[in-house]
Design goal:
single chain, 196 residues, alpha/beta, Rossmann fold, 8-stranded mixed beta sheet, 3-stranded mixed beta sheet
Length: 196
């Protein structure tokens, strides 16, 4: 099955998750990642705000802010695909919609991906080998391309976030697709790379 067909099927499955289940899933995933200690080891964390059925990380963002973490959201470039990450103010975040209508920080401290300790990314799908299927825009792959060029570069750790219904046995993948260190769902934290 090709990526566009899989993307369509998995987005339909993701969109079929009812609002109550979404809320329960967000809190279950938060408990899992907090229990695991992953957030405790990270100082600067890249999050995202949910768009078009994506897993909602807002409860986790609020929790990370109370823990004193620097929480950031992606900022799309005017041209190209390499994103930056703007710090989200805990008290009164100033957000503006980007060209896709997704809120992003404005007038704030901005970081490059390599300055983050942890990056939580939205997924359309994932497989048991740590391959991810995104929306198809290539923004995360372009932003993280430096990690492929330097074998020993390990920042940030990459964690995809999805519902269990978005897991498949195997995904088609390309050389430029960035593999994940882990995937967080409402049921568990899947780990993929040895030693992580």
């Amino acid at each position: 099955m090709n990526k566009s067909t899989l993307r369509r099927q998995l987005r339909a499955a993701r969109n079929a998750v009812d609002p109550r289940a979404r809320k329960l899933a967000a809190h279950a995933a938060m408990r899992l990642i907090l229990r695991d200690g992953t957030l405790l080891r990270a100082r600067r964390i890249g999050f995202y705000l949910p768009h078009r059925g994506e897993f909602d990380l807002r409860p986790l963002i609020r929790r990370a802010q109370t823990m004193g973490r620097v929480c950031c959201l992606p900022i799309l470039p005017r041209r190209g695909r390499i994103m930056r990450f703007g710090q989200l103010a805990a008290d009164r975040p100033h957000l503006r919609p980007n060209r896709f209508g997704i809120p992003e920080p404005a007038g704030t401290t901005v970081f490059r991906a390599r300055q983050l300790d942890l990056l939580l990314m939205p997924l359309v799908g994932f497989d048991t080998a740590g391959h991810r299927l995104g929306m198809g825009g290539g923004f995360y792959d372009a932003t993280l391309a430096y990690m492929r060029q330097r074998r020993h570069w390990r920042k940030p750790r990459l964690i995809g976030v999805a519902f269990e219904c978005q897991r498949v046995a195997a995904l088609p993948h390309d050389p430029w697709d960035m593999p994940l260190d882990a995937v967080l769902t409402e049921k568990r934290l899947y780990r993929f790379r040895a030693g992580q």
